[in-house]
Amino acid sequence: MKTLSENRCFEGKQGVYSHASEVCGCDMTFGLFLPEEARDGPVPVLWYLSGLTCTHENAMTKAGAQAWAAEAGIALVFPDTSPRGDDIADDEAYDLGQGAGFYVNATSSPWAPHFSMWDYVASELPALLFQEFPLDPDAQGITGHSMGGHGALTLAMAHPDRYRAVSAFAPIANPTQSDWGRKQLSAYLGDADWSTHDATLQMQAVGFDGPVLIDQGADDQFLDLLKPEALAQAMAARRQDGIFRMQKGYDHSYFFVSTFMEDHVAFHADAFFS
Amino acid sequence: MKTLSENRCFEGKQGVYSHASEVCGCDMTFGLFLPEEARDGPVPVLWYLSGLTCTHENAMTKAGAQAWAAEAGIALVFPDTSPRGDDIADDEAYDLGQGAGFYVNATSSPWAPHFSMWDYVASELPALLFQEFPLDPDAQGITGHSMGGHGALTLAMAHPDRYRAVSAFAPIANPTQSDWGRKQLSAYLGDADWSTHDATLQMQAVGFDGPVLIDQGADDQFLDLLKPEALAQAMAARRQDGIFRMQKGYDHSYFFVSTFMEDHVAFHADAFFS
């Protein structure tokens, strides 16, 4: 593991690190915020998965999350959204290939050799983090924005007892019924069963074994692609412990994410500490 | 004036606007955050001046300032740092020309026709803002980072009774004695008197008619260029109403700025509302 940068931030430390990823077959970069409390021992950790076109950096610099994580004494992990490199498959479209890993393990050509973001976020990166940093594996939460909200919800429901809570900002909620989903799942998975990678279908099938918080902007320019109504319906039908909030006037930007970040960090902190 | 974007943010609105600037002889872009309270009438306004290489956008997306401004009910203005355009003089160096206006009115060639950031921030942009938006001209404060801290301090001391308070993050504090200063003041002003554009010299000569707050990271990679010790000495010697804080472990980045933004917004709010 290589340290790319470390900056003091809210009495803790915002680091950026790279490492050779076996499952992605390339070097991967991630951000990690450690609160001051990490000097004295392991702290809870909140995973933040980013959206289409993002890297590890977007939320780390634009979401204002460190202020609240420092207040709560929890760490934040910001993984990248795909493998990257000149010798790695890509597509001209912003929503396929590099920057658009969709948190699945690709099985189709040309994506299969590198695009294993599901295993990367669920297995390889956690193993590295819990070995290298003072983080408590028994106190994990997960959140994300857009494609990252999709990743957070599907990973959480597929790993019962792993995450204490899950939340999402404007998640791609029903990708098997959306152009943000069918295109990518077709490319990465071919005609395999996609249901593991659809938060609405997973909510219908299994739900989540803890509290769920969803925020969605009512003026989001991508509402037709996100399909929040499908997830809201599925949460209510399952009697899922959770909150779905439609936020009047907000769009899909980080101005929306940063506005409600305090609530999400507090929501996860509550699951860690209560 | 043209609206480039408006995003709902912390119950208020983050806008980006452009307008034809007479003093800069080009279109200029600025960001403006209006809190919810602006719907009911004029609100106080805090000016944020950015540093070298920055545009109107950096602090607007990376400083986390809107959270605290919304809480306090004050507006934030984010001007650009220079005139911009293909037909406007520039330099290959990052610290001269476009992105490096240094908050002066250039009198030397080739800069004089467009580089009038002093008049832009002190006169032209305020006139536009107070005409177009619900902002209270009698409740203004000013802050900034690095070159923007230099601008905030020098503008504040040159305009008594204009700003209720002034603060700065790692300001270029003594530019007439630094390579961040002598180079730019030589280029823009030639051998004219530079003292108006040196915060330490102005602190020695006149001081500020209100409270001053300075934050400086002790591990700032640019300490030799910033020369905080000169300003600290001058503040103390003048018995200036103010606080100078050396922050252990912090560097020059926005991770430093965002860490102390809450304190700066609260400091200005205190000057507005008490």
What do these coordinates show?
The structure is a homodimer of 274-residue chains. The first copy, chain A, is of the alpha/beta class. Chain A is built from 9 helices and 9 strands. The first copy, chain A, has a 9-stranded mixed sheet with strand order 1-2-3-5-4-6-7-8-9, sandwiched between helices. In chain A, a hairpin with a 4-residue loop joins strand 2 and strand 3. Chain A is globular and about 50 Å long. The relative contact order of chain A is 0.15. Chains A and B meet through strand 1 and helix 9 of A and strand 1 and helix 9 of B.
Question: Which secondary structure elements does this structure contain, and how are they paired or packed?
Answer:
The structure is a homodimer of 274-residue chains.
Chain A: E1 2-9, E2 12-21, E3 26-34, E4 43-49, H1 57-62, H2 65-72, E5 75-79, H3 117-132, E6 135-144, H4 147-158, E7 165-169, H5 179-189, H6 199-205, E8 212-217, H7 223-226, H8 228-238, E9 242-247, H9 254-273
Parallel strand pairs in A: 4-5, 4-6, 6-7, 7-8, 8-9
Antiparallel strand pairs in A: 1-2, 2-3, 3-5
Helix content class of chain A: 25-40%
- The chain-level mean pLDDT of chain A equals 97
Distance between the termini of chain A: 34 Å
The coarse overall form of chain A would be globular
What fraction of residues of chain A sit in β-strands? 15-25%
What low-confidence regions of chain A span 5 or more consecutive residues with pLDDT below 50?
none
User: What's the helix count of chain A?
Assistant: 9
The SS-based structural class of chain A is alpha/beta
Radius of gyration of chain A: 17 Å
The neighbouring-strand order within the major sheet of chain A is 1-2-3-5-4-6-7-8-9
What kind of sheet is the major sheet of chain A?
Answer: 9 strands, mixed
Q: For this entry, what is the oligomeric state of its chains?
A: homodimer
Biggest chain pair contact, residues each? A-B, 23 and 23 residues
Order of helices and strands of chain A: EEEEHHEHEHEHHEHHEH
The total beta strand count of chain A reads 9
